[in-house]
Design brief:
By secondary structure, the protein is mainly β. The protein has helices at about 10-20, 340-350, and strands spanning about 35, 40, 55-60, 70-75, 80-85, 90-95, 100-110, 110-120, 125-135, 140-150, 155-160, 165-175, 175-185, 190-200, 205-210, 215-220, 225-230, 235-240, 250-260, 265-270, 275-280, 285-295, 305-310, 320-325, 335-340. The strands form 6 sheets. Strands 1-22-21-20-19 form a 5-stranded mixed sheet, covered by helices on one side. The protein has a 4-stranded antiparallel sheet with strand order 2-25-24-23. It has a 4-stranded antiparallel sheet with strand order 3-4-5-6, with no helix packed on it. The longest helix is centred in the first third of the chain and has 11 residues, at about 10-20. The chain starts with 11 loop residues before the first helix and ends with a helix.
Length: about 350
């Protein structure tokens, strides 16, 4: 069974953009200009000290009261944090070793639910997805269960939702397997079934689904960003962008979407190798620009793993949207997550034209 959407977004222009990206080579190319921005806020550090720990964020926007929006962040050695817009810790759920996290609003047993999912790594030989209910009033997570996601170590994870409201999860194993799983909630009890699978050559991690167009984007860390057309019968990828050492420097880590209109906007990627973030046009696949976060009122970022972007108002500090990125080196403190006003990004892009 494949994910179905009403809007088929793979136009000839988009396909030609993918092909053009595949011809990019870092050999002999000069470094491209990189914009410099500063973060607007940050979370408190995660609890695990002296280790690579903070990893991936997800954002829930409170449309009625944006200042009460929440950020979920993983401590991949310990569990799941819920942070407020001021960066404070709202709650923590011990879950052992996990990696990436995502969320969607779905109906479960007739009740609107903010469903959080994560890749569980406690068993390195057998991947699992963990599912949780987010109580948006108390900012606490309740475990709904853990579900088998095939052999191998769980790594990347993201949700996808089609036009009919069907929910899918995508488990990315460290060995390169990209597994689609259909989720159902009959009787209020989650169930997860593997529906399709493809194996990339080397280690991938970051993934994100554009629900509007039925496209899954997966980052193969030292090779490329791949795009899967979830409307197609064949579950095989097309090359969207190369890890070429110029625009995108290995490892490519977190992926996020900044969507506009029916199929426009940006794909944002963490260029971990040179501490930057890269934007691509979602329609054409063309490289747009790149930026990094430098020291300001909040310190800059480096070695970023997971990222997330959510458009819309989040209060005075984030009037056009919120970007959250993991910071791999938080000075003399434990790793944490940085908050960036999306308006800053848009103004920087406009100023560079």
């Amino acid at each position: 069974m494949k994910m179905k959407v009403n809007f088929l977004a793979v136009s000839a222009l988009a396909l030609s953009g993918c092909a053009a990206q595949s011809d990019i080579s870092g050999a002999g190319m000069a470094a491209v200009p990189t914009l410099e921005l500063t973060a607007t806020g940050e979370t408190v550090p995660v609890g695990t000290t002296a280790r690579d720990a903070a990893d991936d964020p997800a954002i829930w926007r409170n449309a009625e009261d944006p200042a009460k929006s929440l950020v979920i962040g993983t401590d991949k050695r310990a569990g799941l944090y819920v942070f407020g817009m001021d960066g404070s810790k709202k709650s923590f759920l011990p879950e052992g070793e996990l990696n990436n996290v995502d969320l969607r609003e779905v109906m479960i047993d007739g009740r609107k639910t903010v469903l959080v999912g994560a890749s569980i790594r406690n068993d390195r030989d057998n991947a699992q997805i963990g599912l949780y209910r987010l109580d948006t009033d108390s900012a606490e997570l309740t475990a709904l269960g853990k579900y088998p996601a095939g052999p191998g170590e769980a790594y990347g994870f993201c949700f996808g939702q089609d036009a009919q409201g069907e929910l899918f999860s995508y488990m990315i194993s460290k060995a390169g397997n990209v597994r689609e799983m259909k989720l159902s909630f009959a009787g209020g009890v989650p169930n997860a079934v593997i529906t399709r699978e493809h194996k990339l050559t080397t280690q991938p991690e970051g993934c994100v689904v554009d629900d509007r167009t039925g496209r899954l984007y997966v980052g193969e860390e030292n090779a490329a960003i791949w795009m899967y057309d979830l409307n197609a019968d064949a579950f095989v990828p097309q090359r969207f962008a190369n890890v070429n050492g110029v625009e995108l420097v290995a490892d490519v880590e977190g992926l996020a979407l900044a969507p506009t209109g029916a199929n426009g906007g940006y794909l944002v990627a963490s260029s971990q190798g040179d501490n930057a973030y890269v934007l691509y046009d979602l329609v054409t696949g063309a490289y747009v620009n790149r930026f990094r976060l430098v020291d300001g009122l909040v310190d800059g970022t480096s070695e970023t793993d997971g990222i997330e972007v959510m458009l819309g108002g989040f209060g005075p500090g984030y009037p056009a949207g919120l970007m959250v990125v993991q910071d791999g080196d938080n000075g003399n403190q434990t790793q944490n997550f940085k908050y960036i006003s999306w308006r800053k990004v848009l103004e920087a892009l406009e100023g560079s034209e």
